Amino acid sequence: MGSEILVTVIIPVYNAAPYLKKCLASICQQTLKPIEIITINDGSTDESLSILQQFALQDQRIIIHNKANGGVSHARNRGIDQARGQYVTFVDADDWIEPSMLERLYSAIKESGTEIAKCDIFVDGKNGGNRLNYPSTVNELFDPQECLHLLFTEFNEKHFGFACCKLYSKVFLDKFGIRFEEDMNFSEDVLFITKAITKSKAICYVPQQLYHYNVLTQQSLTRGYRMNGREKYDVIYERVRETLVAENIFTFIETSFNGYVFSGLVNLTLHMQDSPYKGLHLLRAIKEEIVSFVDDYPHVLELKPIKFSLKKKLYYQLLKKNAVSTLAFFIFLSIKKTD
């Protein structure tokens, strides 16, 4: 029966009751029919399990796995291990997908002969969302270096760093043992994608927004000051860099990687606005964070910020001039969101 299943959709579920019905309905209504839907109920305490059971009674393609809470990476890995489809994809329980997404990605991956195909995302809740305009609807192929450059420089709707909005060959993931790092709960998608890209021949890009990312729920989950935020950034940078070095590709994309590191500094100082510090204590804390970060990652001062937003360019110039007190004041007053 496994060979008859073209795609396995893996959905980690943790207290997602308000959004789960829309998510499941969007998958059950896919134009590509030979699929299985593996749902991992990761210790939910709300009505999520009941909703899963209701949908499973209506659609026999839905499989429910119940487990104690272990995090999204553990849930996704379990889904990969249990998958019987030729290809796998991930959908978060508070997101939803266009009816043609699986068919479009499946057709793209079969026609191109690649191990991975990706589409763009539609960020729901961000000023009503943003529809992208495409000069061409023709699928494109990107080699690993191009993909990594985009991974570290393309954010928002075209962001390569989401594990979702992509279709992966199951044989490919198993052959190279590509799985999520279960001890990480921050930017685990980026490390997973980095591993996949470095082992792939190419990625087929479908120029269309087919995955809907519910940014409002993400904001509610991450709102507030992130304790030990710097340590989390250090871990992701170290592991991604180790992967790139091991695959002998780091020197080719080092500049793009350093741009990704700089974006981390922007995020860190932005989130510090929600810290318990106030007034001069906040400015001092931000200054110390910046100085410490630049000391550990001096290459962020060697970038050519051509594609940076206006705010990031100003941030970068202040950083180059060591105007950290002015920089802190600017960040505190001017930056309202992460670009």
Name its key features.
single chain; 339 residues; globular
Written description of the protein model:
The chain has 339 residues and is α/β, with parallel strands linked by helices. Helices cover 48% and strands 16% of the residues. The protein is built from 13 helices and 9 strands. Strands 1, 2, 3, 4, 5, 6, 7, 8 and 9 form a 9-stranded mixed beta sheet that branches. The radius of gyration is 21 Å and the shape is globular. The N and C termini lie far apart (46 Å).
Write the layout of secondary structure elements.
Elements: E1 7-13, H1 17-28, E2 35-42, H2 48-58, E3 62-67, H3 72-82, E4 87-90, E5 96-97, H4 101-112, E6 116-124, E7 140-142, H5 144-153, E8 166-169, H6 170-175, H7 188-199, E9 203-214, H8 215-222, H9 229-246, H10 250-271, H11 279-296, H12 310-320, H13 324-334
Parallel strand pairs: 1-2, 1-4, 2-3, 6-9
Antiparallel strand pairs: 4-8, 5-9, 6-8, 7-9
Helix pairs in contact: 1-2, 5-7, 5-10, 7-9, 9-10, 11-13, 12-13
Mean pLDDT: 87
Biggest sheet, open or closed, and with what strands and sense?
Answer: 9 strands, mixed
Distance from first to last alpha carbon: 46 Å
By DSSP (H or I, 4+ residues per run), the number of helices equals: 13
Q: Unreliable segments (pLDDT under 50, ≥5 consecutive)?
A: 219-227
Structural class from helices and strands? alpha/beta
Q: How do the helices and strands follow one another from N- to C-terminus?
A: EHEHEHEEHEEHEHHEHHHHHH
What is the approximate shape? globular
Number of strands: 9
Residues in helix, %: 40-55%
- Share of residues in strands: 15-25%
**What's the alpha carbon Rg, rounded to whole Å?**
21 Å
